Every structure is written in structure tokens, then in C-alpha cells.
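Marked as duplicate of an earlier ticket. Keeping the data here for the record.
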Amino acid sequence: MVSKSNQLESNRGMTAKEIFVKYGIVFALIILIVVLSIASDKFFVPTNLITILTQTSINALLAIGMTFVILTGGIDLSVGSILAVSGVVFATFAKQQDGVQMFPTIVPIVMACLTGLAFGAFNGVIVAKAKVAPFIVTLGTLTIARGAALLLSDG
């Protein structure tokens, strides 16, 4: 493990190009924040910041899970489609009929989680037991989950 003092010493000798390559995404984020705050006086209001955090939280959770998949040498192309079909299942069980919710709130949550679990277990079993490449399995699951979401939501 590299100590902080060694890391700082190694950063001192970096060229501008190396710094940009290493920290370019951070610079891009800072520029984006500055431009958006200049373009709109409502960018830094608490309501907008909460909205941004709410909208990015789903992608953050998916990214955390994908980090572990990629770190272990795998790949999962079906994550977005599984999220979509799980969302449709949630909406199906959460809908109201004549102004009355058909199921208690916990039912849609559990059903959506079980849907995601089922697709994930399917991917895992095929990859682990049938020894099919994760790219191929998750590409197929992407198509299946996308089709299921379209069918369940009536397009």
C-alpha cells in the first residue's frame, strides 16, 4: 500500500498531461458545475441539489454493484434492462384501482426485488454452471428483460 507522503511525492513530478489524464474527469465535473451555476441562478438551491442526488442515486447503486462485477473480471450488460423490468413489476403491483391501492406498499418492493434476484440468479447459474461467457449470457438476459418490460408495460 502506498503511503500518502509517497503518493504526494509521485504527484509532484507529474506533467500537465499526466495530471489531466489522471484527474480529467474531476476537472470536467468542476467545469460543468461552474457553467451550470453561471447559466442558472437556481442551480445551487437545495431543491435542485436534492433532485440531482435523487436522480443519480439509482445509477450510483448500480455502479457500486457493477464495480464488484468488473473487479472480479466479469461483465454484466443486462443491468439496465433488469432495472427496467423490476421497475415495471413494481409499478404493476403498486397501481391503484378506483383510488384504492391493490397491495400493501411492501408487496411491490418485494416483487421488484425478487424480479431482480431471479434475473441475477439466472445469469449467475448460467455463467457458473454452464460455463458460458458472461458477455453472452448477460447480452441474452438484456434482450429477455427488455422484452419482458415491454410486454408487462404494454409497450
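See parent ticket for discussion. The beta strands are 96-97, 100-101.
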